[in-house]
């Protein structure tokens, strides 16, 4: 760890009340971080804190996460969040920007208001939290991790505006890493493929229509990839923090395929169509 003091490190996990964010918060708490879980729904946060507390057992009372409600797309609420962290702990070592939303549809039909929502959730949320966190992270030589997706690296069919905003998040991450390196802050992107979850396949039913094939409802818009466990992705996020890795792709075997696709776009398109086509005709 590149921490400048031996005090208990502090981590803020946005979107820590559910899904991948909850799992990341749990792993960080188990590693000894004081974790602040951020979401919009206080009950959901409370339940997440309780779940992590019981997973930690009675001996780790000091590591039970704190919850803080904030809509991280709202500058005033993000400002209040980081003032709370400063007042409560006086330091920040890690910010994990997990808040993000996927999409289903064709770009041909992408509405401007939907793109605005995706932009706020996937890009503005991470930008605002990072901006407010920088002064404290500079003091500790801390780390920002942005949670991307394979849609940060490549396009795929049927995922609406998701590739647009996750590519923007990737660009923001690499620019911020260069800007903050001289100030001792590391900025990373973790880009997982579809993550296993209870509501897989049912999440996007409201966005499906006659223009989309059945495979669009599936994780990754029907990408032929085995779902990752959230625990595996959370462990990779923590490794990325500890090793100050700039960029993580999961599963890792896709990284060379993505690089080949960028170097040889015709071959890249062929690979993407192969990985994202259902076996039966659409
Ligand atoms: N699921 C996948 O298969 C997958 C695959 C690759 C990448 N990812 C990425 O991983 C991240 C997490 O995805 P997930 O599916 O685990 O998420 P999720 O289950 O939908 O959970 C989203 C979390 O973010 C919170 N949240 C949403 N909007 C917020 C806002 N404006 N302000 C504060 N909190 C907010 C939610 O709580 P409230 O609603 O109570 O605010 C919840 O805690 C996203 O960036 C996603 O793009 C997911």
TrEMBL record:
EC number: 1.-.-.-
Domain of life according to the entry: Bacteria
GO-annotated molecular function: oxidoreductase activity
Coiled coil: none
Pfam short name (any one): adh_short
Keyword vocabulary terms for this entry: Oxidoreductase
InterPro entries: NAD(P)-bd_dom_sf, SDR_fam
Any one of the GO CC terms: membrane
Family label: Belongs to the short-chain dehydrogenases/reductases (SDR) family.
Matching PANTHER family: DEHYDROGENASE/REDUCTASE SDR FAMILY MEMBER 7B (PTHR44196), DEHYDROGENASE_REDUCTASE SDR FAMILY MEMBER 7B (PTHR44196:SF1)
Protein name (record): Putative oxidoreductase
